[in-house]
Design brief:
oxidoreductase activity, about 30% helix, Nitroreductase family deazaflavin-dependent oxidoreductase, Split_barrel_FMN-bd, 4 helices, Pnp Oxidase, Chain A, F420H2_quin_Rdtase, coenzyme F420 binding
Length: about 130
């Protein structure tokens, strides 16, 4: 099973032929800029489309702390996204309280463990919208 750096490498090498379809769901690569180092960090994340946007969840398996990639995009919302062979720049924002219920349902249908992760933590797990830049 692909995971972590190996997942990123295989996805990049094959334009997502290996790594996009994973555990009965779909995965994109999100590259953020390190908020301290300034270096690029690429993370494989489960996603869904919502209109023209891509949606991901900052779950970290229900950990009490946000994942590093989420902290990075909070500091610098300009990100790069790869979906299969399509690479593009995007602007990330955390779903508003009005947006979140619909987007959470979309993502929990895709990966039902998200509901379990939320039960494990007092942290309000963020849903992130990635808006493609032209």
């Amino acid at each position: 099973m692909l995971y972590g750096k190996e997942h990123v490498r295989r996805y990049q090498e094959t334009n997502g032929e290996e790594g996009h379809d994973w555990n009965n769901t779909t995965v994109l690569l999100l590259t953020t800029k390190g908020r301290k180092s300034g270096k690029p960090y690429t993370t494989p994340l489960i996603y869904q489309r919502h209109g023209d946007d891509h949606v991901v969840v900052a779950s970290k398996g229900g950990d009490p702390d946000h994942p590093q990639w989420y902290k990075n995009l909070q500091a610098s919302p300009e990100v790069e996204v790869q979906v299969k062979g399509d690479r593009f720049r995007a602007r990330a924002h955390t779903a508003t309280p009005e947006e979140k219920p619909e987007l959470w349902r979309l993502m929990a249908r895709t990966w039902p463990d998200y509901d379990e992760y939320q039960k494990k933590t007092d942290r309000d797990i963020p849903v992130v919208v990635l808006e493609r830049e032209n």
